[in-house]
Here is the input.
Amino acid sequence: MVETEASIFNAASSVFRRFGAELTLQTWQKVVGGRLNGFDWYDQLEQDLGRPVDRDTLRAEVQQQHHAVANTLPAQPGVIEYIDEAGARGLKLGVASSSSRWWVTGHLERLDLMQHFDAVMTSDDVTHTKPEPDLYHAALAALDVAPTNAFAIEDSPNGVTAAQAAGLFCVAVPNEVTSGMPLEHADLRLESLADLPLAELIARFEARG
Here is the structure.
């Protein structure tokens, strides 16, 4: 709903550049939309430099830069229209995010969207985040909706994998960071939700084979 991936990547990569190192997008993409799999960009920085760094100071710097940008970002194109149309149709809405609860609810509240969601599931609610399906299982249970009667909108390969593992039809809408990542396994790919009205997406979902 909000494209915060670029701001954290840009903040972390700026730290690398200051040390004369490089955090590539390919390296960063290992962690997008799901678990870290043991990857820590501070480990990577120390490995590149061949010496330790003050992690606490750098972590605080990255978070400050990231939050300063992310907290000004609007909803992605088409999101508000989808939410409004879903409400008019009486559809249930849920969030299944690998981010922490405070981060997710903070953005929903900042954008005055919290009241539109019937369930919000985050990394605080499950043992395993994406690409495991736990978040989607939890969201479906909270919504009391069968996976065959729901679809997911995701922006990363990990997210698409998680949604499909839970039995959902999944629409991929990549962001600036994930646009070059493999999303062929999605049931449908859109460059923006603004490209396809919700009514047409629902019609495609209902007509799926």
